[in-house]
Specification:
This protein has about 210 residues and is mostly helical. Helix content is about 75%, strand content about 5%. InterPro entries: TVP23-like (IPR008564).
C-alpha cells in the first residue's frame, strides 16, 4: 500500500504537468521565426528602385517640351532652338529604348538584320516575379504615363503649329511625334507579346518611323 501511494502521486503529478507541456508545445508551433520577412517588406516598400533611371526617363522628354514652349522667350534663333529640341528628343529616344524600358518594366525592343540582309523586329518581355512586380509598381506607372502623355502633347503641338501657320516648326513637331510614338508602339508590342501577329504588321511602321526620322 505504501508503494502504491507514491506511484499514484507520480501519476497525478505527471498528469498535471502534461497539459502544461502540451500548451508550451502548441505555443512554440504557432511561432514562426522567418527573418526574411522584414527584409522582404522593406524591399517592397522601396518601390522606386532606380531613382536615377526614373529621373532621366522623364528629364529629356519634359525638357524637350519645355524648351519648345519657352524657346521664344530665351532665344530668337530658330536654328538653335531646333537643334536643342531635336537633341533632347534624340537623347530621350535612345535612353528610353535602351535603358529605362529594360530597367523599369523589363521590356526591350530592337531591330536585327540577319545574314541574308533581312530586317527583323524583336520584342522581348522579361519574366518578373511577383515580388519584383510589387516593388516596381510605381516605376511602371511612371514609365507608362510618361510614355503615353508626352506623344499626346506633341500631337497638340502639331495642330497648334498647323492652325497658327508656324510651318517651320512642323518638321520639329513631326520628329517629336515620330520618335516618341515609335518607343510607345514598340513597348506596347513588347507588353502584348513578341509572338503576336500585330508585331509583324507594325514592323514596316517602326522601320519608317525610326530610320527615316
Amino acid at each position: 500500500m505504501a508503494d502504491d501511494l507514491p506511484k499514484k502521486r507520480r501519476c497525478k503529478a505527471g498528469a498535471g504537468t502534461e497539459p502544461g507541456r502540451q500548451a508550451l508545445v502548441d505555443d512554440t508551433e504557432d511561432v514562426s521565426l522567418d527573418f526574411g520577412n522584414e527584409e522582404e517588406l522593406a524591399f517592397r516598400k522601396a518601390k522606386i528602385r532606380h531613382p536615377l533611371v526614373t529621373f532621366f526617363h522623364l528629364f529629356f522628354r519634359v525638357s524637350a517640351i519645355v524648351t519648345y514652349v519657352c524657346c521664344d522667350w530665351f532665344s530668337r534663333s530658330f536654328v538653335g532652338c531646333f537643334v536643342t529640341v531635336l537633341l533632347l528628343l534624340s537623347f530621350d529616344f535612345w535612353s528610353v529604348k535602351n535603358v529605362t524600358g529594360r530597367l523599369m518594366v523589363g521590356l526591350r525592343w530592337w531591330n536585327q538584320i540577319d545574314e541574308d540582309g533581312k530586317s527583323h523586329w524583336i520584342f522581348e518581355a522579361g519574366k518578373v516575379s511577383p515580388n519584383n512586380v510589387a516593388a516596381t509598381e510605381a516605376e511602371a506607372r511612371i514609365f507608362w504615363l510618361g510614355l503615353v502623355i508626352c506623344p499626346v502633347i506633341w500631337i497638340v503641338f502639331f495642330f497648334s503649329a498647323l492652325f497658327s501657320l508656324k510651318l517651320k516648326w512642323l518638321a520639329l513637331v513631326i520628329a517629336g511625334i515620330s520618335l516618341q510614338a515609335a518607343n510607345l508602339y514598340g513597348y506596347i508590342l513588347c507588353k502584348m507579346g513578341s509572338e503576336s501577329d500585330i508585331s509583324k504588321l507594325t514592323a514596316s511602321f517602326l522601320s519608317q518611323t525610326v530610320f527615316q526620322t
